[in-house]
Structure formats: C-alpha cells, structure tokens
Write a structure and sequence with these properties.
The complex is a heterotrimer of chains A (about 260), B (about 325) and C (about 300).
Chain A lengths: L8 E12 L2 E12 L3 E5 L6 H9 L6 E6 L2 E3 L4 H7 L1 E3 L12 H7 L9 H6 L3 H20 L14 H13 L5 E5 L7 H18 L2 E5 L3 H7 L2 E6 L2 E6 L1 H6 L1 H6 L6
Parallel strand pairs in A: 3-8, 3-9, 6-7, 7-8
Antiparallel strand pairs in A: 1-2, 1-4, 4-5, 9-10
Chain B lengths: L12 H5 L5 H21 L2 H27 L7 H18 L5 H20 L7 H21 L12 E2 L4 E2 L2 E2 L3 H24 L1 H11 L1 H7 L3 H28 L1 E2 L6 H14 L4 H42 L1
Antiparallel strand pairs in B: 1-4, 2-3
Chain C lengths: L1 H31 L6 H23 L4 H26 L9 H23 L14 E4 L8 E4 H23 L1 H11 L1 H6 L4 H27 L8 H12 L4 H26 L4 H15 L14
Helix pairs in contact in C: 1-5, 1-6, 1-8, 1-9, 1-10, 2-3, 2-4, 2-8, 3-8, 5-6, 5-8, 6-8, 9-10, 9-11, 10-11
The chains are: A alpha/beta (about 260), B mainly alpha (about 325), C mainly alpha (about 300).
C-alpha cells in the first residue's frame, strides 16, 4: 500500500511544563510532528505521556510553554477549538458514552458538522432528516472500515473491551481528523487484536491521510509502525528520533526498554 | 422494547432511524393513540377522567420534560415544581393582561417564561454537579415559592397568590366537560411527546447523553457543555412550564403557590426514576404508576386484604374441622 | 449596633443547631455515599419518641422524678433510633449497593415518608413538649458596654455547648478509632473496602446509628426550644444549604457552614426582609450557598472532584 509522503511540521510542542501541586508531570517538553507521519510517544508508566496528550487536547492547561498547530500558536488549548481544528483523540480508559449504542457513539463524532438547529431537529423535517441520513452514511463507512457492523445497535457498555476500543477509534475518525491522538490503543489486547488494531491505524494513516500521534507500550508495535519516536521519563524528554536511533540510545536503554509482548 | 426484531430489513437510513422501526410497534402505538382519542371516552366515566386520566396526562407531560433534563442530560433537578408554577402564573398573566389572548398561545408563552427562568437557574449546572446541583436547584424552588406568594405583580395582586381561571376556549370551542379537557391535554401530550422523541434521537439528544455519560470526553469531541446543558434546561423547562399551565388551567381551575411546591418536584422526580431515566415512554409509565397507585391502594387494598383474610380464615377453619 | 450584635449572636446559635442536623447528613454521606434525605424525619421521630416517653414512663412506672424520666426517655429513644438504623440497612440499603445518586436519593426520600408516617401513628400528631430543664429566660450580657446589655438566650448557649461537644466527640471517633477509619474507607469505595474485609453491613448500621444519635440530640434541643411538632421535619430542608455550602464530605464544613447560614438567615430576615415582604429566610440560605458554589463547586471544605481521562 502506498504510504503518503511525510510533509512539514504540522504540530509543534514547545517547552511545555505541567505541574499538579508539587508534582512535575511534564518538564520543558519540546518535540514536533510532521504531516502524515506516525509519531510514537513511549516511556514508563507515569512518565507523563497521557498528560502530554491532554495538554494538546485542552484537557489540561500547562503552566509554561506553547503549542503550534499549522502555524497558529496557542498558550492554552481549548477543547472545542482543538476539535474544530481537526485534532481528535482516543482515551486510555475508553471515555465512551456507555448509555448509547455504537452508532450513536460514533455519530457524536459528527457533531461539529451537523448544522441544523434545535427547532428543525424537533420537527425532524427537511434539512434535519437529510443531514441525519448523510452523517449516518459516513458513520456506516467507518463501521465497515472497523468491521463492527454486527454490533452497531448494541449499547457500548455491553461490548467486549477490544470492540470498545474500536468504537473509541471510530468516534475519533468520525471527526475526519487531520491529527489523531491515540492513547494506548492496544492496551489489554492479545496478539491477534493488536495486529487488527495496527492494521486499522496504518490504514487510517494511509487512506484518510491522518497524522498519528500514538502512545504505546508494546515495543514491537512501536518499532514496526512508527516513523519517529519520542521517549519520556519522569516528565522529561530523554530521546527523540527514528525507532532505530531511539533503540540504540543509552539513556533510553537504561531508563526503560520494554519487552515485546 | 421487550422483544428483538427479526426479519424486518430496512433499505434506507431514514427507515432505519424512524421512531418505531418495527412494523408491529408502529401499528400498536397508532392503535393505542386511536384508542386513547376515541375508545377511552366511550368507556370511561366522569370521575375517572377527573381523578386519574387528566392528572395522568398532564403529569406525564411534565415527566417527559423532566426526563429530558435528568434522564437524558444527567442534570439532577429538584426544582421542577417552580417551573410548573412559572408556566401557570405566566400563562395567567398573559391571558389576564392581554385582551383576546388565545388559550393555547398563552400556555405556550407561559412555557417560554419557564424557559427563560430555566436557563437562568440552569447556569449553576456549568460549575456544579451531582447532588450539589440537586440541592442548588432547590434555590429555584424556594425562591419561586416565595415570589408567587409575596410579589404581587406576578399574580396581578391577588391575595396570597391564589388565582382562578374560567371559560377556557380554543377557536371558539369551549372546553368545559371532562371529555373535552381530556382531549385538550391528550393533544398536548401527543404533540410534545413526538417533538421530544425527535429531539432525543437527533444530534442534540446525543449531545445531551454524551454530557450525561462523560462530559470531559464530550468536550474533547467538540460538544459545548454550555450549549448542551442550557438547552436541556431550556427544553425541559418549556415542557414543564406548559404542563404547569395545563395543570392550573385545565385540571385545577384555580390554584395557589402550594400547588407547585417541593412535594410536586419530588413527585415528578419519582415518576422519572420509576418510569425509567432516559426514556420518553418510561416517563409516561412512571406518571401512570404514581397517579394510579394511591387510588389503587385506597380502593383495592382493603378488598385484597379482606379477600386474603377470608381465604386464610376459611382454610384455618377447614383444618380445624377435619 | 447592639441590635446587630444580638441578631448576629442569635444567628450563630441557630446556626449551631443547623450544624448538628447537617452533621447527621455528612456522617452518613461520608461513610456510605448515601445522601440521607430522611435525616429530618429522623430528627422529628427521635424528638417525638423522647417527648412521649418522658410523658408516658412516669405514668406507666409510677415515679415522679423529671430527670429520671428524661434519661430513660433518652435511652429508649436512642434504642428506637438504633432499631430504625438496623431496619433501614437491612431492608433498603443492602439492596441498593452501588446504585447511582438519584436512585439512592429517592430511596431515602421514601424512607422519609415512611418514618414520618410511622412517627405519627406511634406517637400522635399533636404538639408535644420536651422539658430538659433548659432555662427559658433571656440573660443580658455586657451591659457595661451596651446600654441595657445584649440579650442572649441562655438556652441557645447551652444548646451550642452540647452541639459543640458532640462534634468534638465525633471528630475524635472518626479520626482516632479503628471503626472510624473503616467508615472513611467505606465512604471512599464500597467495593474496595469490602475486598479488604471490612464488613459493609455492620459499618452501615454503625453509621446510621451514629446519625440516629445525632438526630436524637438535635431533636431534643430543637424540641426543647420550640416544641415537638411536624414542622421539625422541614428542618432537614433548612440544613441542606449548610451541607452544600460546607461540602458534602466535611465535618468542619457542616459546622462552619451552619454558622454562616444561621447568621446569613437571621441578618437577611431582619435587615432585608422588611423591604421585600418578609419570609425570605429559606431561599436566602439557598441562594447564599449557591453563590458560594459558583466559586467553589465542591463547597468550602468539600473534596475536589477530579476527573481522570
């Protein structure tokens, strides 16, 4: 499958520091992400990887530093702004809407693109009905892509963990993101499920053209699918480069080199 | 609902997304609505209308409204009585102060008054959650309890807020008999239930449920908590306000602030919880249960107890004699 | 100035009583995560029990000593409250482990109605007296500074002292005893506490007993002050703004919140009430709490709710 050519820097994280009371979650982190690449963030538990994604997403506000997206610089990211700019994410602990079905969960990802107002929706006439069907069609394409057709009407709380992870991914995809932040998408999966998920991620990167920023523990996966890697430890950056460069890095080896599962 | 569909395949999304996707469901509900409009009046006497059916219809409407806020959007509210009051007194003001104001318009405008109040008193939900929010909504309840009692302007200076209305008319047709009141309320319930169902299955409904289930994740997708929560308060208060107007105008004929006190708020919340949070149909079941149960207990329980007692007595005597 | 100080002091005293009722709420919430709407009904029930038994016992057992009657009535009322605690745990709470807040709230609301009805059928619905020998005449303090002195209700002072001692006892109980620690564990996470061997059912009975005791003391004081009547159960609604102001999980919050609300109510009624027609006490308390919540959504001393994604 043809891989897209890696472009210029699309996301630039500069000197981010994040503190919770006395705890330094992140200290002076800087790295960049190029368009269409797969960038992995690795490091031991508690290194600050999820916090980094949360800063990019606007869930946490860093005390210092700034983030640039396509040339626009922000000191603080606002969640809705970030979503509108085309940055989507999945969550380590699956922040799915347990009370809704798979279709409804993924449809919430289309929220920013639904234009009809509350009165049209109440009457369900004309544009409201049409929009609903159009977006449903897009969501069905995602469901096809993720191979979860059989479960579309099931409440997500009832699905097995691996399928819930796919729904989480589907919801992020529904936003048609330019940058996709994936927080441990393979956590808790067996070998087969990991292969499926890796294939999905690569397909998203190649077919949809999304830039992927990926937090992952499984070194085998990281080495296989990522173009460049950032290594964090205790909130500090200790490595940055291609998988091979990082694997040979002394600091990374001494701090943490996880095993292939 | 209680069964799974099998063998009914849809060929377009519109068909799959409709309210009653299963053919049998659709026919059943249409039959039920027809029976409600035509069949029930033929079978039921005046007492049943006044004591059970009309209160049921109006409270079911209010429960639908409250379910949108509590069940779909997850914002616990104990102030719904106040919004019924605002709807009732609002409609009263519009009818009394404006010559020739049509009844339905007055009720809807009363709903609008409740909407505005709902948005204002819903602002705390942007900062406060869960039980804290529930208690905060009591501020609305007690404030309006007091306001309608003491602020004369709201009640056109009637003493202690006791007002009365009479001669209800719609397009020249006078609503007088229990059957006519029943149809009037049934009409409101049917229309509003349909609008509510449309809302909860479209984007705004999904946004409400997203806020309920996990509001941080919802924000990350681009759902604005402010718009979602306040719109839930707005829609919910509108429906509850209209129900309040119906309660005062059609069911009671005359009321004072105590008709919409905290006990009413609890009653509505009970209906939503027992009927089912996050279900339009459930609100109606809950309302039916709460309205019918006391009457059932009053009338049927002594009979049941007497019946059980006499059976046991007979059995005891039989074993004694053998 | 003197009038202001009198109102202030009156507010502080009233606030102390609110704190006592609020304490019952906070204890149960801290230990079981249940928001016990029935606390007010429990106060009324306890007060009714004490009032009637202090009246009946001398008749049944044929003695005359008021102190003995009161002590015995207190004990019996206490036992009744423990009984209710045990029944509530057995019949209601056990079946509702880990249900969401709204359901539990409704369950305690149901318990409220039940206890109300039970109290009325057992003890009657008239107004009854509790006479525990509290002084009824006011006392005048500081008459060297203020002309005529500040009028202070000695009964209120005694009530405040009793309430304060109870609070200190409870704080020691929670922080220094093994049972207290177990209670705090259960408040954090029912299932985790169970998995380390803490007997959930016993703990809940203990908590409701303590809350019942607090309700009894509160009922005794309120009842002595204003007579035991139905309106006592609405005292629960007056205590709610105290809890949300202070924070649902904080004992010091209940106390300080109570004082603030007590003072706020009295001052608003006296100084503002005249302009707007009176009767603003109850919603003023709620509005005050609401305004504070906008700045501190978890109350003054409550635990911050942190979401982890």
């Amino acid at each position: 499958m043809a891989k897209r050519e890696i472009g210029d820097v699309i996301l630039d994280v500069e000197n981010i520091s994040l503190r919770f009371g006395g705890v330094n979650a992140l200290s002076d982190i800087s790295f960049d992400v190029r368009e269409h690449e797969v960038r992995a963030i690795i490091g031991p538990n508690g290194a600050g990887k999820s916090s980094m994604l949360n800063c990019i997403n606007g869930v946490y506000q860093p005390q210092e530093g700034q983030i640039s997206f396509r040339g626009n610089t922000f000191k603080h990211m606002n969640s809705r702004q970030v979503a509108e700019m085309g940055i989507a994410r999945t969550f380590q602990n699956l922040a799915l809407f347990k009370g809704m079905s798979v279709i409804d969960n993924i449809m919430t990802g289309r929220n920013l693109r639904i234009k009809s107002n509350i009165f049209l929706q109440a009457l369900r006439i004309g544009p409201a009905e049409r929009e609903e069907s159009e977006h449903r069609e897009y969501v069905e394409q995602i469901i096809d892509f993720l191979e979860i057709q059989a479960h579309r009407k099931t409440p997500v709380g009832q699905l097995p963990y691996g399928l819930q992870k796919r729904v989480d991914l589907g919801r992020a995809l529904a936003m048609e993101p330019q940058v996709l932040l994936l927080d441990e998408p393979m956590a808790g999966m067996n070998m087969e499920e990991k292969q499926d998920m890796s294939r999905f991620i690569l397909d998203v990167n190649e077919e949809f053209g999304s830039t992927i920023v990926l937090i992952e523990h499984d070194m085998g996966v990281v080495m296989d699918i990522s173009d460049r890697v950032v290594v964090l430890d205790y909130g500090k950056k200790i490595g940055d480069g291609t998988p091979e460069e990082v694997r040979a890095n002394e600091d990374v080896i001494s701090a943490y080199l996880g095993t292939s599962h | 609902m209680f069964y799974r569909e099998n063998g009914q395949f849809k060929t377009n999304y519109k068909a799959d997304q409709q309210i009653f996707a299963i053919t049998q469901d659709r026919w059943a509900v249409l039959a039920l609505i027809a029976f409600a409009f035509i069949g029930v009046p033929m079978m039921v006497d005046e007492y049943l209308f006044r004591a059970i059916l009309i209160p049921f219809l109006i409270l079911a409407l209010a429960a639908v409204g409250l379910n949108i806020l509590v069940g779909y959007c997850g914002q616990l509210s104990l102030g719904s009585g106040a919004f019924m009051a605002i709807g009732a007194y609002g409609a009263y003001n519009f009818i009394m102060r404006i010559e020739g104001m049509p009844l339905i318009l007055a009720l809807l405008l009363g709903g609008v008054c409740a909407t505005i109040a709902g948005i204002v008193f819903g602002i705390p939900s942007l900062r406060v959650r869960g039980l804290y929010l529930a208690v905060a909504t009591l501020a609305a309840q007690f404030f309006w309890d007091w306001a309608f009692l003491r602020i004369g302007w709201f009640t056109i200076y009637t003493p202690s807020g006791s007002v009365a209305v009479s001669n209800l008319q719609v397009f020249g047709w006078t609503i007088n008999s229990p059957v006519e009141k029943y149809w009037f309320c049934l009409g409101f319930l049917t229309v509003f239930a349909l609008l509510a169902k449309n809302l909860v299955r479209s984007a705004i409904g999904r946004n409400w449920m997203a806020i309920r289930d996990m509001d941080v994740a919802a924000a990350v997708i681009g759902i604005q908590p402010l718009y979602a929560k306040l719109s839930a308060f707005a829609v919910s208060s509108f429906i509850i306000g209209v129900a309040g107007g119906l309660w005062g105008f059609v069911h009671l004929g005359g009321w004072e602030p105590a008709a919409f006190d905290i006990q009413r708020s609890f009653q509505l919340l009970f209906m939503v919880i027992i009927g089912g949070m996050g279900s339009i149909m459930g609100s109606m079941f809950g309302a039916a249960f709460i309205v019918a149960l006391p009457i059932f207990l009053n009338q049927a329980l002594p009979l049941l107890v007497a019946g059980w007692a006499s059976l046991s007595l007979r059995r005891a005597l039989r074993t004694l004699n053998s | 100035m003197a009038f202001f100080l009198e109102t202030l002091l009156g507010g502080l005293m009233a606030g102390m009583l609110y704190s006592l009722v609020a304490l019952g709420f906070v204890l149960i919430f801290k230990a079981s995560g249940v928001f016990n709407f029935a606390q007010g009904a429990m106060v009324l029930f306890a007060a009714l029990a004490m009032a009637r038994f202090s009246e009946w016992l001398p008749q049944w057992l044929g003695f005359d000593n008021l102190l003995l009657a009161n002590v015995l009535a207190f004990l019996i009322a206490g036992i009744l409250m423990f009984g209710i605690a045990w029944l509530v745990e057995r019949l209601v709470l056990r079946h509702l482990v880990n249900q969401d807040g709204a359901t539990l709230l409704m369950a305690t609301l149901g318990i409220t109605y039940f206890i109300d009805g039970l109290g009325q059928s057992l003890f009657g619905s008239d107004i009854y007296q509790i006479n525990i020998g509290m002084p009824k005449e006011p006392v005048f303090l500081l008459d060297s500074v203020f002309e005529g002195g500040l009028m202070v209700n000695l009964e209120d002072v005694y009530a405040a002292i009793i309430a304060a001692s109870l609070v200190i006892l409870l704080t020691i109980f929670f922080n220094k005893t093994i049972t207290g620690r177990a209670l705090r564990a259960v408040a954090d996470d029912h299932q985790a506490a169970q998995s380390v061997g803490i007997p959930l059912n016993h703990i809940w009975v203990v908590v409701w007993c303590v809350a019942g005791l607090v309700a009894l003391v509160a009922g005794m004081i309120w009842g002595s002050k204003m007579g035991v009547q139905f309106s006592l159960s609405t005292v629960a609604l007056r205590a709610l703004p105290v809890i949300i102001l202070g924070g649902l999980t904080s004992v010091p919050g209940a106390i300080i919140g109570g004082l603030i609300i007590g003072v706020g109510e009295k001052l608003s009624e006296v100084f503002l009430g005249g302009y707007v027609g009176g009767g603003i006490e109850i919603w003023f308390a709620y509005m005050l709490a609401l305004v504070v919540l906008m700045f501190r959504p978890q109350g003054l001393f409550g635990e911050k709710i942190i979401d982890r994604v």
